[in-house]
Amino acid sequence: MILGMEIALLIFGIAALVRGKFSVGKDRKVTGWRARLLGLICLTPFPVAMTAGIVIGVVAALDGRGEPDYLVIAGVEVVIVVATCVIVALLGKAFYAQQRREEARPAFPGADGFGVDPGPPADPDNPYAPPRTRA
């Protein structure tokens, strides 16, 4: 089961890095740099698990044991993979909400029709002059 989760994280991570799109649910897609960041996070269990395995092996060797406890290594790997999945899910949800807010925000004040862009000042040499009104 953990191997399947790791393979899925690998596939989703590479796809998100290449395409710049990451699906976080039905009809919900994160795009751009946020999707690529999620893809990068999907790939983090591999170096983290390898580093943890090396540390556990070195500690076992320094304690005088011949081989490390494989149940500890498996447990650490389970924690790393599950934590990565939870982090990706939570960040994906937050990124999607942030992306929706940015898409709904007008490009400049007045672009939504509620405010009016006043335009440049009447006297371009005087920055304190009142703006021209457009007719």
From TrEMBL:
Keywords: Membrane, Transmembrane, Transmembrane helix. Residues 118-135 have a biased composition (Pro residues). The chain crosses the membrane at residues 6-25, 37-58, 70-91. Residues 107-135 are annotated as: Disordered. It comes from the Bacteria. This is Uncharacterized protein. It comes from Tautonia plasticadhaerens.
